[in-house]
Amino acid sequence: MKHYIKKTMATALAATASIALLAGCSGSAGAEQPGDGDGLVPVNVGVFAAADNAALYMGVEQGFFEEQGLDVDIQVLDSGPAVTAAVVAGDIDFGYSNTLSLVIASSRGLPITVVSGGVAAGQDVQGGSDANAAVLVPSDSDIVGLESLPGKTIAVNALGNILEVTLKNALETEGIDTESVNMVEIPFPEMPAALASGQVDAAFMLEPFVTMSEMQDDARPVAFPYELVTPGFQAGVYFTTMPFLQENEATVTGFQNGLKAAVEYSKENPDAARAVVPTFLSIPEDIVAEMNLPTFITEADPEHIELFVELGQRYDLVEGEVDLETLTAGLSR
Questions:
Q1: Does any domain span residue 1?
Q2: 113 and 249 co-located in one domain
Q3: Residue where one domain finishes, among candidates 180, 206, 229
Q4: Do 223 and 260 lie in a common domain?
Q5: Angle separating helix axes 54-61 and 249-268, nearest 10 degrees
Q6: Strands 202-206 and 153-156, how do they pair?
Q7: How confident is the model at residue 36 (pLDDT cuts 50, 70, 90)?
Q8: Domain count, the chain
Q9: Same structural domain for residues 151 and 272?
Q10: Long-range contacts of 123-127 (CB under 8 A, 24+ apart)
Q11: Are residue 96 and residue 149 in the same domain, yes or no?
Q12: Same domain for 262 and 116
């Protein structure tokens, strides 16, 4: 059965999962799940709204997960932290999130473990065809670069997370006081309208919203914080919990194998990867045709995970010791 579910996390679920995360609780689906009516093992994967997950959707569409005996349902949540909270609470089996969310969870004693890479940033600090994230401003804005941001209001999808941290890192590289900018939370799909209406002075977006804002509202990029951290910055990964990994080894292996096949297919068939984006995001096809596709990866470099630990500690988001052995255990299988 080839299908997936698109939905926004309900308020009650968000509250429950967030409480579980903050309280240090850990959920697990228990022993190896039984198959559904087709003999497939049902698997839920939580993501947030961005083109980052095009390869995952391709895996469902092309049957790569079915070949591994899995029936994958994809659930769309509001942000990486929301996905992390839902996985920890045991509401979903796997999640896609920015790596910093997982580092923060680990520092709170939660048994999170990465099972696959997701996407990597580009190689050029000036952007380019492999850049998947950017700070954008209206075309008539007086903002010309990072040096123009002090005193401005900038949209990020979640405070205290990867966008805030990488933007602060970028500001520091230019010798700018990180407290001189005001960051506000706005979900990615709402950012183009918020920027166009003047609700914010700038917005830190991911694709396809970068291209949407450029094409529909004539916005322009002024900074690429991901690339300023390090070339090929591994911003997103797929993960689960250690209890789920230990109790559902065949399911985890099948998910990894299906995702690897999907990434390889997406790289070999970029037009197909683009075509799948409008099936899970309400994005016009002309925008999808012009956007930068994410750099899909399955390998996750432990050194990049350590880099997130350093960034989290620098900006006081990592509260305790990060268990790197547990956090990377899913990669060593």
A1: no
A2: yes
A3: 229
A4: no
A5: 100
A6: parallel
A7: low
A8: 2
A9: no
A10: 123/227, 123/231, 123/232, 124/224, 124/227, 124/231, 125/224, 125/227, 125/228, 126/224, 126/227, 127/221, 127/224, 127/227
A11: no
A12: yes
What range defines the domain where residue 172 resides? 133-229
pLDDT in tens, 191-201: 999 999 999 99
Phi/psi of residue 236, nearest 5 degrees: -130, 145
Helix (H, G, I), strand (E, B) or coil at 71: strand
The predicted structure's pLDDT at residue 38: 72
Name the residue among 270, 163, 261, 149 with its Cα closest to residue 209: 163
Mean of the per-residue pLDDT values of the chain:
87
Q: In 39-72, which positions are buried (b, 16+ CB within 10 angstroms) versus exposed (e)?
A: ebbbbbbbbbbbbbbbbbbbbbbbebbbebbbbb
Sheet holding 182-185, edge to edge: 182-185, 153-156, 202-206, 133-137, 220-223
**What mean pLDDT do residues 43-54 have?**
93
Q: What is the mean pLDDT of residues 186-211?
A: 96
Domain membership flag for residue 5? no
- CA 205 vs CA 11, 51, 121, 168, 244: distances in Å: 24, 11, 13, 15, 32
Tokens at 314, concatenated:
């620098």
Q: Over 60: is that where the pLDDT of 19 sits?
A: no
Q: What is the pLDDT of residues 276-301, one digit of tens each?
A: 999 998 889 899 999 999 999 998 88
Residue 116 sits in the same domain as residue 140: no
Task: Give the separation between CA 127 and CA 268, rounded to whole angstroms.
Answer: 23
Question: Which carries the bigger pLDDT value, residue 16 or residue 88?
Answer: 88
Q: Are residues 225 and 239 in the same domain?
A: no
Show which of 211, 229, 247 is a domain's final residue: 229
In a domain, 99, yes or no: yes
Buried b (16+ CB within 10 A) or exposed e, 74-96: bbbbbbbbbbbbbbbbbbbbbbb
| pLDDT range class, residue 79, cuts 50, 70, 90 | confident
State the residue for tokens 């700018």.
176
Strand partners, 9: none
Q: Judge if 137 and 276 occupy the same domain.
A: no
* Residue 110 within any structural domain of the chain: yes
Inter-residue contact 98 to 67 (CB < 8 Å): no
Instruction: Say what the pLDDT of residue 37 is.
Output: 53
